[in-house]
């Protein structure tokens, strides 16, 4: 990353729902002295936002504004060359952001976004991984609610088990224990529906494989590419009903965000199989109070997925969306929101009583506020600890957990709580 660039951070897409929250978080909470700018396609919107940020008087200060009329490679290249890190909240990503990633990869500009669009992430990794490595760019997609929490939960469990027992992890089961949310933004809904418009059945089927982003899956390796769970097996009834039970996590059913999260976690584990374990398997679910509720949710989600694959039904759903792109729940309505993820990891050891770790992730607030924090603190960590990140992980397409314990520690100070602990007293290595 060229140290002579004019800005430390440019936030592209700052005038959208998530972009505004991100800009507000920088102004209100970033105490490190940074030079930053907001970029978007409409000068008046940028000016309004910059004035509001200035008036709020937070430590992060007010940003400069930059208009970028078209998201083409030449236009974004000009923008990317002026900054060390580009944060991108323009969406849908599959529709507009391939040239943004290309420009960053070609200009050696670090890039972070909050997409949850796995087929698009697969596409940009395939297209630009070599270019990003060659030009020394760090690219981290999915550093929002999808999929930073899950990736950090898995990383923390593996790190603890490595430290205590000096071995990898076999199985990890995670559960969205609580998700109190005021709803999805218009941009998120448009993105989810747009995926069905843009990608064919084959591409959507490919990304249903939880290992679809794992480098291990691409390699001709002597170890298994898609390790199945070693310590548990679901019964036929559990597979049909879509609900099952796991110790310490209770009744579990299908989680709508499991797909992207599992893919990112397995990308992390596939990059470091000697650290995570060659049999590492991560599965994510949603906790429910009763098996009946779990079964209903699982079946409804299956039906919904099938229905949304039918274009006329998608068109009807688009007409009924509560929020249009650019809109989302008010900050007041998200005040009592909360997200909690719990997870159990089983150490890769053949002992009578399996050695385990329990991880707990909690954020008191809205999921979009959480996304803004994950993105901004990710950027600050990369800015401050770039040498360490790159020494450990190199350049190219990394995952949120590549930002390491420093990222987790900074998040902790920002109210994003993550704790991993050893389960039971099973001694040490
Ligand atoms: N998975 C996660 O963790 C997560 C969390 C939050 C958001 N997201 C994703 O982030 C994206 C943004 O969400 P949102 O709710 O903030 O959406 P939004 O409010 O609709 O904002 C979209 C942003 O993209 C810009 N934009 C749209 N079309 C553009 C174009 N053709 N050229 C240039 N800029 C364009 C908009 O600019 P204008 O303001 O000028 O219209 C706006 O800044 C979505 O894809 C959403 O799924 C994901």
Catalogue the ligands: NADP nicotinamide-adenine-dinucleotide phosphate
Q: Major sheet: size, sense and barrel closure? A: 7 strands, parallel
Strand content bin: 15-25%
Enumerate the spans where pLDDT stays under 50 for 5 or more consecutive residues. Answer: none
Helix/strand-derived category reads alpha/beta
Characterize the overall form.
globular
Rg estimate, integer Å = 21 Å
Intertermini distance: 41 Å
Rounded mean pLDDT is 94
Strand order of the largest sheet: 3-2-1-4-5-6-13
Q: Can you count the helices?
A: 17
Helical fraction equals: 40-55%
Number of strands: 14
Total discrete domains = 2
Write a concise keyword list for the protein shown above:
429 residues; alpha/beta; Rossmann fold; 2 domains; seven-stranded parallel beta sheet; seven-stranded mixed beta sheet; 17 helices; 20% strand; binds NADP nicotinamide-adenine-dinucleotide phosphate
Notes on the protein architecture:
There is one protein chain. The chain is 45% helix and 20% strand. It has 429 residues and is of the alpha/beta class. The protein has 2 domains: 7-142 and 368-406, Rossmann fold; 148-366 and 414-423. Helix 6 links the parallel strand 5 and strand 6 (138-140). The model has no long low-confidence stretch (mean pLDDT 94). Bound molecules: NADP nicotinamide-adenine-dinucleotide phosphate (NAP). Residues 13, 15-19, 40-42, 45, 71, 89-93, 96, 114, 116, 144-146, 185-188, 191, 325-326, 328, 368, 371 line the site of NADP nicotinamide-adenine-dinucleotide phosphate.
């Amino acid at each position: 990353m060229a140290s002579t660039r004019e800005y430390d951070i440019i936030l592209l897409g700052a005038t959208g729902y998530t972009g505004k929250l991100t800009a507000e978080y920088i102004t209100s909470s970033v105490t490190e002295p940074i030079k930053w700018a907001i970029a978007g396609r409409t000068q008046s919107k940028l000016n309004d936002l910059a004035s509001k940020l200035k008036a709020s008087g937070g430590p992060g200060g007010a940003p400069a504004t930059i208009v970028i009329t078209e998201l083409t490679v030449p236009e974004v290249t000009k923008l990317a060359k002026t900054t060390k890190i580009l944060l991108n909240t323009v969406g849908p990503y599959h529709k507009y952001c391939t040239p943004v990633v290309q420009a960053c990869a070609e200009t050696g500009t670090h890039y972070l976004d909050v997409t949850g669009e796995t087929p698009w992430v697969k596409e940009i990794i395939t297209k630009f991984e070599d270019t990003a490595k060659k030009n020394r760019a760090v690219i981290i997609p999915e550093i929002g609610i999808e999929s930073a929490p899950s990736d950090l939960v898995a990383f923390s469990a593996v790190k603890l088990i490595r430290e205590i027992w000096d071995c990898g992890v076999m199985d990890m089961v995670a559960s969205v224990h609580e998700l109190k949310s005021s709803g999805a933004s218009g941009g998120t809904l448009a993105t989810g529906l747009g995926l069905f418009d843009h990608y064919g059945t084959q591409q959507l089927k490919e990304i249903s494989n939880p290992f679809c982003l794992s480098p291990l899956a691409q390699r001709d390796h002597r170890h298994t590419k898609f390790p199945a769970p070693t310590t548990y097996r679901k019964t036929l009834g559990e597979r049909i009903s879509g609900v099952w039970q796991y110790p310490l996590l209770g009744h579990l059913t299908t989680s709508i965000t499991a797909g992207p999260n599992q893919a990112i976690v397995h990308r992390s584990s596939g990059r470091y199989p000697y650290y995570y374990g060659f049999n590492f398997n991560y599965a994510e679910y949603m906790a429910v109070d009763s098996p009946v509720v779990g079964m209903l949710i699982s079946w409804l989600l299956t039906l919904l997925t099938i229905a949304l694959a039918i274009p006329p039904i998608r068109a009807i759903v688009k007409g009924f969306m509560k929020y249009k792109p650019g809109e989302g729940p008010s900050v007041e309505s998200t005040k009592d929101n909360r997200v909690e993820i719990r997870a159990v990891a089983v150490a890769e050891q053949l002992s009578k009583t399996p050695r385990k770790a329990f991880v707990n992730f909690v954020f008191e607030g809205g999921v979009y506020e959480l996304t803004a924090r994950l993105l901004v603190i990710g950027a600050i960590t990369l800015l401050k600890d770039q040498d360490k990140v790159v020494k450990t992980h190199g350049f190219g397409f990394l995952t949120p957990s590549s930002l390491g314990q420093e990222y987790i520690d900074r998040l902790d100070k920002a109210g994003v709580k993550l704790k991993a602990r050893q389960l039971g007293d099973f001694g040490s290595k």
